Amino acid sequence: MAETLYVKAEQCCRVTEPDIFLGKVAKMWCKDKTILSKCMAIKLASAGKGMEEERFVFSALDIVKLVQEVCPNVDVQNMGEQDFVVEYKKTAPAVLWWEWTKAVLIFIIVFVGAAFAIITFNHDVSVGEVFQNIYRLVTGENPMGFNILNAGYCIGLAAGILVFYNHFSGKKATADPTPLDVELRSYEKDIYTTVIENESRNESKRENDGMRGHI
């Protein structure tokens, strides 16, 4: 009688070791502990040499295939996701001064951004008037046309868009999908869902029309 191996993988899992083993990315249970140990030691993939972070995508069929190669008589029951993502990120020793520097910079950016949003809201989103008041408050002089605040705003706005969308260069800052990628995948998913539902409705309609024709 074949033993049953139950496997449950979450949609996303993170590992810090370059060698990715099945037992590290999925919960597993089998009555036979020998089979369980063998399956947990199955190697799924290895991160590229020198890679700081990398992403892998596996399916339940990949797991079944690998388990069957090690234990041919095992019945694999998938209790988790059909497809799942494994993210590898190399751990680095934390540098205390750099962590505090990043925290302070983030605090300053959030504080200034929130203050700017509140001020522009109270001025009915009149950014030009806000800049004039700030310039007059800091320098004590009335602004004469285009000034450093306007220049900084233009440069910062363009840089913020480029960094946020992360979609305008061949080399991306992170391996994460950009907001545009996410929206495009959501749009494609909605299209496929609509096509399937329309086809199902059309098929039901054809069946009903056929029944009426016979009547």
The share of residues in extended strands comes to 15-25%
Tally of strands: 8
User: What structural class should be given to the helix and strand makeup?
Assistant: alpha/beta
Low-confidence stretches: none
In N-to-C order, the SSE pattern is EEEHEHEEHEEHHHH
Strand order of the largest sheet: 4-1-7
User: What is the 3D form?
Assistant: flat
Report, as a whole number of angstroms, the end-to-end distance: 54 Å
Secondary-structure blueprint:
Layout: E1 4-9, E2 12-15, E3 19-21, H1 22-25, E4 26-30, H2 33-40, E5 43-46, E6 53-59, H3 60-70, E7 75-78, E8 83-89, H4 96-122, H5 127-139, H6 148-165, H7 179-214
Keywords summarizing the entry:
215 residues; alpha/beta; 3-stranded mixed sheet; 7 helices; 8 strands
How would you describe this structure to a colleague?
With 215 residues, this protein is of the alpha/beta class. It contains seven helices and eight strands, in the order βββαβαββαββαααα. It has helices at residues 22-25, 33-40, 60-70, 96-122, 127-139, 148-165, 179-214; strands at 4-9, 12-15, 19-21, 26-30, 43-46, 53-59, 75-78, 83-89. The strands form three sheets. Strands 4-1-7 form a three-stranded mixed beta sheet. Strands 2-8-6 form a three-stranded mixed beta sheet. A two-stranded antiparallel ribbon has the order 3-5. The longest helix has 36 residues, at 179-214.
